[in-house]
Amino acid sequence: MTAVARPATPKLFAAPKGALVIAGNAVGGACILANWWQAADSSDLKANLSSAGLGIVGVVIAGLTNALWLQTARGAIAGRRRRLSSRVAGWAAPLDRLESVAAVPDPAPAPASVAGSGLIAVEGATLYHRPDCPLVTRKRTAAAAAEIHEANGLRPCGVCEPALWIEHDGARQ
């Protein structure tokens, strides 16, 4: 049995940002606790309001350091998404090559009355699509005219926009 190497997980608390986040939260928490400690000793409103600035500073420091941590997390997620997208594109490239070899070219654009007959729908779905829509790739579909799909209660897809496909010069694009 062979072991599969897993990609390294991004470290959100890696030095030096991790230390900064922990220190910032510690300083913010200390400011909030010091404010609470000062306010707990006094029942004088004026003294409590003057010490409230320390608590506000603590909240701001903790908020800024947590915003830094969230930005770091977003950057790690975006980097992971880019790496995954490039890997998926590499996997899909051989499949695209097979489809282009097996595809039969369309001899000529169809007239407007026939152009809408190539629209497809997936069984049990609520939308109809163009044949090249990525949402229906490798799914079992049924072809019909737009009027038939709409009579069956289906709406046009917002990704491939089959209505524009039909209307553009009365020909398939």
Could you walk me through the main structural features you see in this protein, from its secondary elements to its overall organization?
By secondary structure, the protein is α+β, with helices and mostly antiparallel strands. It has two domains: 17-102, no CATH class; 112-167, DNA Methylphosphotriester Repair Domain (3-Layer(aba) Sandwich). Helix content is 57%, strand content 8%. It contains five helices and four strands, in the order αααβββαβα. It is elongated and about 80 Å long. Mean pLDDT is 75; it is low at 100-116.
CA(first)-CA(last) distance: 50 Å
Overall number of domains = 2
The global form is elongated
Number of helices: 5
Query: Biggest β-sheet, characterized?
Result: 4 strands, mixed
Overall mean pLDDT stands at 75
The helix-and-strand class reads alpha+beta
Instruction: Report the strand count.
Output: 4
Strand content range: 5-15%
Please supply descriptive tags for the structure shown above:
173 residues, alpha+beta, DNA Methylphosphotriester Repair Domain, 4-stranded mixed sheet
Question: What's the quick description here?
Answer:
The chain has 173 residues and is α+β, with helices and mostly antiparallel strands. 57% of the residues lie in helices and 8% in strands.
